[in-house]
Amino acid sequence: MDNTIYKNRRNNLKELLPNNSVLLIPGADLQYRNADSAFPFRQDSSFYYLSGFCEPSSLIAIVNNKDGVKSIIFVPPKDKLKEIWDGHRSGPVGAVDDFLFDKAYDNLQIDKILPDILHGHKEVLYPIGKKKGFDQQVIDWTTAAGSKDRHSKSINIIDATSLIGNMRLIKDEHEINLIRKACDISAEAHIEAMKSVKDGDNEQQIESMYIHEFSKRGARYPAYNPIIAGGENACVLHYVENNQNLKSSDLLLVDAGCEYQMYAADITRTFPVSGKFSEEQLQIYKIVLDAMNAAIDSVKEGNNIMQPQEISEKVITEGLVNIGLLKGDPEELHKSGAYKDFYMHKIGHWLGLDVHDAGDYTEGDEFMTFKPGMITTIEPGIYISSKMDVDDKWKGIGVRIEDDILVTKDGNENLTKKVPSDPNEIESLMS
Ligand code: GLY
Ligand code: MN
Ligand code: MN
Fold first, then answer.
1. Is 224 in the pocket of ligand 1 (CB under 6 A)?
2. Which residue, 110, 146, 359, 375, shows the most beta carbons closer than 10 Å to its own?
3. pTM of the predicted model, to two decimals?
């Protein structure tokens, strides 16, 4: 196990942390589904990013002062009986030997030891408001640290969300390789689904196929609840019931990506259950695909991150005017936001350890520009529910296409292009 990469990330904090400060990153706790049935443990992503350590209820403290950067971790203590039931614990010794922390303590000692660590520092930074109960704990530890002697200065509490998020925003080579693998696995699952879906299948059956295809390639969990939406269900943006039978006249929208070694992929494809798009389905599909391709072309170093958004809105507005679903001047309709009845979400989000990954979208008062190492999704859509006041022939058509795009030095790389989005290629794959 080489955990140097995590140690290096902790050391890199020297450049980012204020002098004489302590950064606290809380790990995740075990979550219960019901009664005493626990979900499989998933470590907090920022905690994992800085440690590679996957045991619950742990805490990292990075101390930055004149002696340099020192990393400390609090971990569950060794416990013979608990380890018989729940498996190996590294304990403080393992945390130092295997995870390369400078110092480690048993987490039952946090309240006693952490105020001593904070004492004498000017600032404590942590992600404010992210973990239930943690804000109060930090206040208590900081207060205890400040009252250690009458003459110590009060300690400022600062939000570290942007500091950690923006570190995670630029992916290193190790991360890009894992995300690439998550994308490959997810793309292969979509290809398998396109090849096998048929009239009468239940959405749940399709969901299980994705989970199986992910798992047999080494990705045991999806990165988020898959959306398997037949026909009009596609118009519910976060549809997760996944329990209806598919009809041959339906389009099937699947938004599903796996988590591979903690990293997410996020892919949406929309394909006809019958294997052949109807005329109206194809018209809508092509508008979304045009928006998608134009938006991807604009994901380039130096471009504003809102450029793909604006381009997709314009292409969709124009397309809807061309087929009569919007009436008027495309430029005016874009300005007035008329497209929002059909395309009501944003074009994408950062992708990484979390599917909606950490990292700011603005720099100062402005939206950011793209930089090499960022990964964004591009996912335009058109949704026409039967409640809309349009010709019946359009009703129940919902289309989204979503790819994962890495910003490179020379432009971008579409990490999910392996699964076709071209309608002819989809139809031939399904025939
Ligand atoms: N899969 C969730 C999203 O596309 O944002
Ligand atoms: Mn997405
Ligand atoms: Mn998605």
1. yes
2. 375
3. 0.97
Nearest CA to ligand 1 atom 5: 356
- Any atom of ligand 1 within 6 Å of the Cβ of 404: no
Q: Where are the domains of the chain?
A: 4-168, 170-430
**Amino acid (1-letter code) at residue 401:** I
Fold of 4-168: Creatine Amidinohydrolase; Chain A, domain 1 (3.40.350)
Could you tell me which of 251, 288, 291 has the C-alpha nearest to residue 272? Answer: 251
CATH superfamily, domain 170-430, is Creatinase/methionine aminopeptidase superfamily (3.90.230.10)
Q: Please, which residues have CB within 8 angstroms of residue 13's CB and are 6 or more apart in sequence? A: 23, 62, 64, 69
pLDDT in tens, the chain (431 residues): 689 999 999 999 999 999 999 999 999 999 999 999 999 999 999 999 999 999 999 999 999 999 999 999 999 999 999 999 999 999 999 999 999 999 999 999 999 999 999 999 999 999 999 999 999 999 999 999 988 887 777 899 999 999 999 999 999 999 999 999 999 999 999 999 999 999 999 999 999 999 999 999 999 999 999 999 999 999 999 999 999 999 999 999 999 999 999 999 999 999 999 999 999 999 999 999 999 999 999 999 999 999 999 999 999 999 999 999 999 999 999 999 999 999 999 999 999 999 999 999 999 999 999 999 999 999 999 999 999 999 999 999 999 999 999 999 999 999 999 999 999 999 999 99
CA 257 to ligand 1: nearest atom: 1
Which structure tokens are listed for 134?
């943690």
